[in-house]
Amino acid sequence: MKEMCMDFFVILVFIIAPLSLFLHELAHGIVAYFFQSSYIYIQLGVGPSLLKQKHGVFRISICLYIFLGALVAYERDPEHTMYERAVISIAGPFINAFLVLLGFVMYYVVDHPYISLFIAFNIWITTVNLIPFKFANKKSDGYVIAEALWNRVFSSNK
């Protein structure tokens, strides 16, 4: 039993989490590219950078502790509108929700506990990212979406 828990931990930390986090941030980056961002930076993990890639407007950095989160930064002049930022923000949770659906299809074909772990992690990422919260000057995807909706509702009543 202890070995199985350790296997789950290793698979989660070194495969499922980094893959899911990277795809989440890549989805933000692709939509930002669609909205003509001139600079898109995707970072997977924290700590010293192990790999840096540049392709067009994309800069990708893979760091030592790949399981400790990810981020995307994007820029454009003129700045993105609130609507564009909301669409860019929804792309990350959307891709994780899609991965949940894909996981269910995979689980139907191959009943394996790692697939259940993949599904659970992507449900968690989708849910947490849709919760509106702000920590220091960092906003969750949910916060950006809620802020855009709030401004849309109350600016149209003027």
Describe this structure in words.
- Belongs to the peptidase M50B family.
- It is a multi-pass membrane protein.
- Residues 19-108 form the Peptidase M50 domain.
- This is Peptidase M50 domain-containing protein.
- β3 (134-135) and β4 (138-139) form a beta hairpin.
- The chain has a two-stranded antiparallel ribbon. Strands 3-4 form a two-stranded antiparallel sheet.
- The model has no long low-confidence stretch (mean pLDDT 94).
- It has four helices and four strands; from the N terminus they run αββααββα.
- With 158 residues, it is an alpha+beta fold.
What share of residues is helical?
Answer: 55-70%
**Number of folding domains?**
1
Q: Total number of helical segments?
A: 4
Q: For the residues shown, what is the average pLDDT?
A: 94
Instruction: Assign an overall shape.
Output: globular
| Total strands | 4
| Arrangement of strands in the largest sheet | 1-2
Q: List unreliable stretches of 5+ residues.
A: none
Distance between the first and last residues' Cα? 62 Å
Keywords: Membrane, Transmembrane, Transmembrane helix
Protein name: Peptidase M50 domain-containing protein
Domain Peptidase M50: 19-108
Transmembrane segments: 56-74, 86-108, 114-133
